[in-house]
Amino acid sequence: MKTELKSLHEKKAFICDMDGVIYHGNRLLPGVPEFTDWLKQSGKDFLFLTNSSERAPRELAQKLRRMGLDISEEHFYTSALATAAFLASQCPGGSVYVIGEPGLVNALYDAGLSMNDYNPDYVVFGETRSLSYEKIERAAELVLKGAKLIGTNSDITSPGERGIIPACRALIAPIELATNRNAYFIGKPNPLIMRHALKTLGCHHAEAAIIGDRMDTDIIAGIESELDTVLVLSGVTSLDTLNNFPYRPNYILNGVGDIPKDEVEIG
C-alpha cells in the first residue's frame, strides 16, 4: 500500500505524541532525528503532546537531549499540565491527594493547588512506579468520603523498552471498582488538551496534523478535533489491531521517519 505525503507536507503545524512515536523508554526510535530535522528545516510549528504525566517539559527536553535531539522545552505539553490547569479553573486554591510522579505533583503545586491526604477536593492519579496497596486504599477512602477522582490520561497500556506495560487507566481501575466511581480523564482524547495544543501553536485545526501510535487516544483525538491524523506503527498499534476500530486515520506510516519522504509503502 503506497501513500503520497504531499498534502501532509503542506500542513503548517504538527502535534506529536512521544511514547511509541519518538521513543520506547530510553531508546530513541529509528528515523526520529530525520523527522525533527525536517520539522525545523521546513519551518513547521510543532508541539510534543504527551499523555504521560511523569516528567515536566524541562525533563522531557533533557531526556531528548541525552538521546541527541535538541528541542527546547516550550515545544512540550503534558497531561500533568493539562490536569493542573483544569483543576485550577474548576476549584481555585483547592486541595488534592496525588498518586503520581514529580512532574504531576509540581504541576499541581505551580497551579496553586495544595496537597491534602485528609479531606481533599480531588484524588488525582497519574502513572507511577511506586504504586502501593496503601495508596490505593487511601485513595478509595477519600473518594468514598466525597473527593472527585481525576486521571491524567485514559491510556490502558504504554510501550516500554521491554514491551507493553500498564498505564494510567489500568492502574486507576482498582480505585474505580472499589468506589463505584468513574474517573474523569484529562489527557488525549479529551478536547481540553487538544484545544490548548492548537492555541499554543496558533493555528486552525485545518492547518494541523496529529501524529500518534494509539487509535484510542491520538487518532480519535485528531478525528474529534478535525485534524488530519497520522498513525505510526512504531508503538502499540499494528495493522492487525487497526481493524478493531470503527474509524481510520488519514495516513498510516511505519514511523515518523517516513514523514519527510514524498511517498511511502506500508505492509
Describe the structure concisely:
The chain is α/β, with parallel strands linked by helices and 267 residues long. Helix content is 35%, strand content 23%. The strands form 5 sheets. It has a 6-stranded parallel beta sheet. Strands 8-7-9-10-13 form a 5-stranded parallel beta sheet, with helices on both faces. Strands 1-17 form a two-stranded antiparallel sheet.
- The CATH H-level superfamily of the largest domain is HAD superfamily/HAD-like
Q: Report mean pLDDT, rounded to a whole number.
A: 95
Using the 3D structure, state the CATH architecture of the largest domain.
3-Layer(aba) Sandwich
Largest sheet: 6 strands, parallel
Strand content: 15-25%
- What class, by secondary structure content? alpha/beta
